[in-house]
Inverse folding.
């Protein structure tokens, strides 16, 4: 879009940002934070209206696990305020996720004037890939990891009568899904580290076996069960993401970009 803006106008914006005082930068930051909070608040109120439906989707894995083991499909609570607090938490996190594209845009709008033109081209792919990878991690956890873990845990304690509280279930659900969503952001982290020259594709490839060992250790820590199968289910996408990250590191490595610029200048 910046190609359609006259060069004089772009220079004027750059000069204005260069001459902005520290207080003016703080004022701009305050304005962006206020807009972000307004979007989060709007997302919260929208999500609050649908909180019961959202939680109905959240509890499907535990309901399926209880049904598979012929147990009573009912969660309990121990405190009269627990359902209300649980819906507040669900609505807030759902609202935060709904507002995340707008919040990311506010972040971009604040830092964009200080970026070079070649750096700005990474902004939109960064926003799309960040949200997409987080969604992919959460969906993978919701459809594969979490149901398998619950089925194992419920079956392992089949001789007891489960009394699962809504608070404990919600915390476990959010821990696994948010954790996997964050883990799926690995290519984004590697992208920036490679861009800054902190890591390289060669270094990642040479340390592949050590990285796989670390990945399985992390999977053993974060998986809610103790069986090898669930640990492998956790580790498999992490290994795949590591391999993808090696390719990303190769694409954006400073040496490769320098060679491309040299080839263009020579031609």
């Amino acid at each position: 879009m910046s190609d359609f803006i006259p060069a004089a106008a772009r220079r004027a914006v750059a000069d204005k940002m260069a001459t902005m005082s520290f207080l003016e930068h703080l004022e701009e930051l305050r304005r962006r934070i206020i807009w972000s909070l307004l979007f989060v608040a709007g997302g919260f109120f929208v999500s609050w209206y649908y909180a019961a439906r959202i939680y109905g989707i959240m509890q499907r894995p535990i309901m399926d696990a209880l049904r598979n083991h012929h147990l009573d499909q009912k969660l309990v609570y121990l405190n009269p305020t627990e359902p209300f607090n649980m819906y507040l938490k669900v609505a807030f996190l759902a609202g935060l996720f709904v507002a995340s594209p707008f919040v990311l845009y506010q972040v971009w709008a604040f830092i964009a004037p200080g970026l070079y033109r070649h750096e700005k081209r990474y902004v939109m792919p960064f926003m799309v890939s960040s949200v997409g990878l987080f969604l992919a991690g959460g969906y993978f956890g919701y459809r594969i990891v979490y149901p398998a873990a619950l089925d194992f845990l419920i079956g392992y304690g089949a001789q007891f009568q489960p009394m699962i509280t809504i608070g404990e279930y919600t915390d476990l659900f959010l821990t696994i899904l948010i954790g996997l969503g964050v883990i799926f952001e690995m290519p984004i982290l590697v992208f920036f580290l490679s861009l800054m020259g902190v890591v390289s594709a060669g270094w990642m490839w040479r340390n592949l076996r050590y990285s796989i060992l670390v990945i399985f250790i992390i999977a053993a820590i974060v998986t809610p069960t103790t069986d090898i199968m669930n640990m492998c289910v956790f580790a498999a996408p992490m290994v795949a993401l590591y391999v993808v990250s090696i390719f990303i590191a190769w694409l954006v490595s400073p040496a490769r970009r320098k060679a491309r610029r040299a080839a263009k200048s020579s031609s």
